[in-house]
């Protein structure tokens, strides 16, 4: 009857509680082993121990992986483990001892009155367990198990959890590139259709994509989109290499690098992508504020990413200290460093060098670009290591307090290193592109240059402060970036068409392939009105039907674009 | 019967069309004078000429001020004028020739299915006019009129429109400070309640407000909130002085300054506030993503401000060139400059000087702070003026194209000058505070210092690039900012309590004065569920009733805060 491996409906991952998220050790839910009945008793002792946020819990799931402190008959707490727990019965009613509900419900009626909006994603719920019994077999035994007589044993290296986390984070990076790709596609296509302002020649108007500010915003976001695509790919390869190492003889030497870079990259990338979606939305003017543009939805959906799968600040605070350890290790054991971080071994040379740029085009040399970023990174790491050492010496601070005092700088070295890694992974992909797709290479090299030089330009103080880049070299950057933006603008529509998003997947009246923006805005608006009228102020027609209709319209009209 | 001065319902301001917003000259709606009947005929000739976005149009208004090209019997186009037009009759049905509807309707059913979210604010609509006749008297005659025989005359100086725009923009700045104040209140109060992570002493946990990163985020936003409060005040005073000048003898000499600064400030402030709301939201972790925090709503509502009341990019592009003219004027007629921009007259001295800071505390001198910012401004303006002149000389570009080539730098000088103006207005307010509220002065001086030095720090490259600030002086800034943040943290709860927002006005489970965050989250969640259950999947109870209930709960629980 009960098959834990084949739940009929999506299974919730119930870890976070009302009172605690990031700090797993402070979660309060307990799972006490009851030897008499060979069961675990799951319990939520307080209000703050209620599970809060798990996806699919509000309505869909009938099973949840519940994380709880394992308490054994010896009275000891063996830390957090997962327990597969049935939360709803065959009629989809809560099981005995279970209180389960929807944390997004309050938003529903409010919106009917055009009142509030909600960021909540689909189906997030809460869960209270009151002395709920489950068979011992339902402890999820991937990492540890408990015997019939209550004895604990570890099953396999829990470093594997790390490996899985990296996989999830690689997916987030790749996925972020997709999401930003959608936003940029919408904004670029619309900017090629929208006219506003007078043309200098006096005839007609400017396409807004011909304004250099609009170009700058959208082309730099395009550069980021492509960069993150290659970063995601690199992370996935690293993940697989690491997994192979662990599987073939338990070599965990790559683990720390992989953990550090995947944490930091998830944080840097989710923050940059969120900001870039918002810029794309604003670049569409008034129509970008309408949900018919598809952009508000992208923003609101994506706005969870700086928080979920590792809160960004906390991730940087994990990456930073590892980088300092890697810097120390670089002297003694340089060959142990993964390729993207091998530059730490070169720290002395990087520190004593000066940016060699003499002419504008020297900035287009990938080595010059990368070494500029790497110089900054090792300098910042060095300064921080010294500062922390000094704090340690003068005061009798505890470790955590020293970390707290240097938190901003720890976060900074993580951010810097991840910016460099994104550039590295783009560079890393280029030779293969040059070999396999020589006709595409110039367009991609241009975006790589644009992304890299824009990164240097927006962090310019980091390079000026110790004179690595001088004023003359710095003054070349805005000119060069303008040139690259202008060149990229020529291929703008091609760059976004290459993502291959269908009109359906964009769900945007502005981002249509055929460029019939105004017709679509008007048609969708009338459609919405009809639905409301049908329902006499409420809603009678099923939205799915409407969605189908929109899709059909979309399909019919996906013919050759005007652009 | 018809009294245009007393419309029963809110009146819409119908200017923007589907195809054009910022570029008013390209709006397509026409108002043709029909001499035979002494009427205007309003007409929407194309799909793109439909009025789109006006507030209150979707459902509420029965009259709209419709902007249209005035066409007189001589066949000439006299440009945009406003015409008061009845759009709905006594039964609230559309008048003949009127098609009117809701541009947000499609979002309603979607949300019922937890599907989409919408940025649309309340009641935005569209309007098509098909040869609609209105009496001549309904032309809004504040600025111009048309006689019985079709002759056009201007009524008063249309510079007054400018004056009104400034007033609106001053309100936006003040209002932005309020909105950000709400976001910061919520985040600070929650951060004083939320515990996460281990305390270095090993006992209990950190309040998250004790993490220096959290402090840095929230205290710098607090500084901005206070700064913008004083900026709004300064702008309102400037607006009134300008109006007095115009009324008393038509002195319009302040006009250009006032226009420039109000445009740029609206743009800078709306962008910074939007970003800061998002940071406050993220600082609340997972609960910040829930609408129960009140933060998503603030973000989504505020997200219109970079676009409405003058699109930000376009505003900067208006301010920038005026600044260049003012710089030129500063040599010949320095006394004509408003106080916040009088420094342009000091350009030569500013350009040739060097930051005098020797010890960390020298950075706390308001004059040192201000001159650092002002030096940057005049340097950037000078460079831009020279560059534009060079472009003009070598090429035979038209004016608009030269502007397009230098767009990023034009925007930059506007942004820089406005950052300086915000600092100036905060400084400007301090002596009065010191005199009238000496006990408050230290707390406000601290926020002014924090806001100013944080501004310099986040734009550090601007000051390093020409050596005005050297590496040693720059290295003092992070230390000083940390110190100020730490001091501000001590008063954090006091700073936000001083805004005096009631629990009702915050609408947030996290921002409660009494600190009972978890109880509120749970209670509101249960309330939401009940409503959904009541309606059998739909919604039966009126939301206003629910809102009332929430408010009652809120009121009862607004007792002395725990914080
Ligand atoms: C849409 C959505 C879906 C979710 N789905 C699930 C799910 O399916 N299952 C599940 O179990 N959970 C889920 N969650 C919960 C999510 O995992 C947590 O919200 C996330 O881990 C962040 O934890 P928190 O909310 O406790 O934030 P907090 O840790 O409370 O963070 C609040 C603030 O404190 C700061 N802070 C906290 N600790 C430190 C520290 N040590 N040093 C410095 N600063 C610190 C943070 O930087 C942040 O600014 C979901 C959340 C959301 C928003
Ligand atoms: C919530 C909301 C409420 C509104 N309420 C009303 C209302 O009550 N009444 C009303 O009449 N209107 C209203 N509007 C419309 C609003 O006034 C316009 O959306 C706004 O003026 C911007 O114009 P636009 O949409 O045409 O943007 P666009 O001008 O099309 O802007 C699109 C992009 O092009 C760029 N761009 C445009 N021109 C230039 C240029 N010359 N140089 C460089 N870049 C340029 C912009 O920077 C932007 O990135 C409302 C809009 C919203 C979102």
Tell me, what is the CATH class of the largest domain in chain A? Answer: Mainly Alpha
Ligand set: flavin-adenine dinucleotide
CATH architecture of the largest domain in chain A: Up-down Bundle
Low-pLDDT runs of 5+ residues of chain A are 1-8, 107-121, 535-551, 553-563
Radius of gyration of chain A, CA atoms, in whole angstroms: 27 Å
Tally of strands of chain A: 13
What oligomerization state is this entry in?
homodimer
Q: What portion of residues of chain A belong to β-strands?
A: 5-15%
Topology as H/E string of chain A? EEEEEEEHEEEEHEEHHHHHHHHHHHHHHH
Helical residues, percent of chain A: 40-55%
Q: What would the principal axes of the Cα set say about the shape of chain A?
A: globular
Report on the biggest sheet of chain A: 6 strands, mixed
List keywords for this structure.
homodimer, 563 residues, alpha+beta, Butyryl-CoA Dehydrogenase, subunit A, domain 3, 3 domains, six-stranded mixed sheet, three-stranded antiparallel sheet, 11% strand, binds flavin-adenine dinucleotide
């Amino acid at each position: 009857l009960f098959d834990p491996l084949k739940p009929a409906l999506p299974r919730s991952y119930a870890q976070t509680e009302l009172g605690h998220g990031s700090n797993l050790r402070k979660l309060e839910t307990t799972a006490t082993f009851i030897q008499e009945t060979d069961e675990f008793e799951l319990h939520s002792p307080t209000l703050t121990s209620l599970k809060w946020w798990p996806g699919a819990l509000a309505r869909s799931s009938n099973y949840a992986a519940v994380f709880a402190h394992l308490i054994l008959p010896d009275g000891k707490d063996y830390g957090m483990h997962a327990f597969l727990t049935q939360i709803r019965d065959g009629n989809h009613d809560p099981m005995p001892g279970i209180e389960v509900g929807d944390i997004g419900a309050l938003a529903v009626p409010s919106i009917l009155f055009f009142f509030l909006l909600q960021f909540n994603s689909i189906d997030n719920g809460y869960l209270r367990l009151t002395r709920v019994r489950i068979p011992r077999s339902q402890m999820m035994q991937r990492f540890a198990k408990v015997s019939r007589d209550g004895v604990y044993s570890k099953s396999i290296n829990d470093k594997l959890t790390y490996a899985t986390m990296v996989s999830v984070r690689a997916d987030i990076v790749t996925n972020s590139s997709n999401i930003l790709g959608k936003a940029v596609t919408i904004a670029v296509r619309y900017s090629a259709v929208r006219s506003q302002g007078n043309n200098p020649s006096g005839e007609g108007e400017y396409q807004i994509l011909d304004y250099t500010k609009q170009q700058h915003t959208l082309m730099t976001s395009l550069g980021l989109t492509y960069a993150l695509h290659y970063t995601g790919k690199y992370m996935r390869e690293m993940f697989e290499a690491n997994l192979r190492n662990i599987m073939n003889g338990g070599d965990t030497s790559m683990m720390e690098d992989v953990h550090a870079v995947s944490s930091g990259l998830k944080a840097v990338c989710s923050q940059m992508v969120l900001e870039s979606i918002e810029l794309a939305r604003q670049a569409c003017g008034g129509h970008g504020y309408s949900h018919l543009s598809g952009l508000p939805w992208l923003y609101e959906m994506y706005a969870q990413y700086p928080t979920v799968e590792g809160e960004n600040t906390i991730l940087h605070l994990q990456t930073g200290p590892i980088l300092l350890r890697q810097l120390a290790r670089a002297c003694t054991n340089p060959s142990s460093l993964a390729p993207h971080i091998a530059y730490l071994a070169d720290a002395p040379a990087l520190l004593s060098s000066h940016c060699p740029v003499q002419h504008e085009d020297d900035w287009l040399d990938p080595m010059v670009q990368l070494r500029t970023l790497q110089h900054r990174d090792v300098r910042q790491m060095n300064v921080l290591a010294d500062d922390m050492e000094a704090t340690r010496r003068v005061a009798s601070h505890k470790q955590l307090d020293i970390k707290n005092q240097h938190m901003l700088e720890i976060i900074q070295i993580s951010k810097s290193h991840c910016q460099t890694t994104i550039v590295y992974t783009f560079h890393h992909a280029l030779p293969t592109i040059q070999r396999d797709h020589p006709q595409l290479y110039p367009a991609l090299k241009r975006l790589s240059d644009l992304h890299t030089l824009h990164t240097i330009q927006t962090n310019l103080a980091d390079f000026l402060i110790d004179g690595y880049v001088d004023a003359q070299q710095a003054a070349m950057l805005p000119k060069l970036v303008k040139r690259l933006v202008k060149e990229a603008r020529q291929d703008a529509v091609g760059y976004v068409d290459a993502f291959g998003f269908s009109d359906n997947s964009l769900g945007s009246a502005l981002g249509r392939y055929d460029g019939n923006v105004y017709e679509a805005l008007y048609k969708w608006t009338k459609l919405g009105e009809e639905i409301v009228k049908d329902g006499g102020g409420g809603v009678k027609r099923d939205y799915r039907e409407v969605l189908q209709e929109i899709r059909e319209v979309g399909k019919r009209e996906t013919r050759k674009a005007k652009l």
